[in-house]
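Q: What structure does this chain adopt?
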Amino acid sequence: MKNLIEHAESEIKELLDSGMTSYEIGKRSGISNQVIDRYRKGTNAIENMTFKTAKKLLELKKAELEANIE
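A:
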């Protein structure tokens, strides 16, 4: 189970570290850019992220991967 959680954290970190702006991530995920900025700056720890927020970010990451494959 821990590997699944570590994988999710890694995927979210990769998305947050990508070239997408906080505005773009926020707009496409439904999460405010202020919240995105707090995770990017480390004010909020990814491991303390709500499941709802993590799910939205992982869905965006998945959509990005699928778009890059096509």
